[in-house]
Structures are given as C-alpha cells and as structure tokens.
Amino acid sequence: MVSGKMTRESVRRAINMGITGDQIIDFLYTHAHPQMRKNANFLPPTVVDQIRLWQIEGERMKSTVGFLFKDFLSAAEYEGPCQYASDIGVLKWKHDAKRMFFVTRHEHVAAYLKSQKEKRREGG
User: Fold this and answer.
1) % of residues, the chain, pLDDT over 70
2) If both were cysteines, with which of 43, 85, 96, 104 could 91 make a disulfide (CB 3.0 to 4.6 Å apart)?
3) CB burial readout 8-23, b (16+ within 10 A) else e
4) How far apart are CA 33 and CA 30, in angstroms?
C-alpha cells in the first residue's frame, strides 16, 4: 500500500516556490504507482479540486500597506480628499456610502486635509 500526505500548507509552500496547482496534479498523475493506474479515476476528483482551490485561495487576497481615512462628517468633507487621492494616484479603494477610502500613501492626503482646514480657518 502506498500513501502520502498533502496539506494546505504543503501545497501553499509549493505554490510560493513557483509550482502551480496544475503542475502538482500532473506530477501526481505522472508518478502514480502502476497499480493505481489500473483504476480509471485513480486520482480522486476531490483531491484535484482541493489542490486548485488552495491555489486560488492564495491568489484571492492581496494585502496592501496603506491608511484608511474614515469618519468624515459630511459628503463635501469626504469628496475633496478622496478626489485628491485619486488625482495623485494613491487611492486604492473607496466606499462613498460609508465615506471612507484607502490610500497607499497618507502623507499627501494628510497635508491636503491640513491645507483645507487652514483655508477654512482663514476664510471663515
């Protein structure tokens, strides 16, 4: 009897080293024991599906270092800095209904907010 152990972590490590899910599956088919090959579906479809799911799992989520701006009191207060962030190319995500946005560099947006606050103070 031949057995092996494949875990989410072992597949993830292989994928992180540049090996694709399809390459893992091809390897299992190619190096299967001759006794196993006598069966039509010697590699269970659930195993093949799980390897592909684990690969997709790693591709689904990407982290980005940045800063979340939120808690704006009005739409007007939110729209200016959000548009500014978009104009300078640092806006990664926004949610207009919740008045929040995410930027990759907060320094420029913070300086913009400070300048807007000073303009309001001088003008009114």
Assistant:
1) 97
2) 85
3) eeebeebbeeeeebee
4) 9
Contact predicate 36/42, CB 8 Å: yes
pLDDT at 1: 66
pLDDT digits (tens, 9 = 90+) for 102-118: 999 999 999 999 998 88
One-letter-per-residue 3-state SS of 97-120:
CCCEEEECCCHHHHHHHHHHHHHH
Query: Which residues make Cβ contacts (< 8 Å) with residue 113, sequence separation at least 6?
Result: 81
Rounded to an integer, what distance in angstroms lies between the CA atom of residue 116 and that of residue 110? 10
The residues, ordered by sequence, that sit 6+ positions from 14 with a Cβ below 8 Å of its Cβ are: 24
3-state DSSP helix/strand/coil percent for the chain, to nearest 5?
A: 55, 10, 35
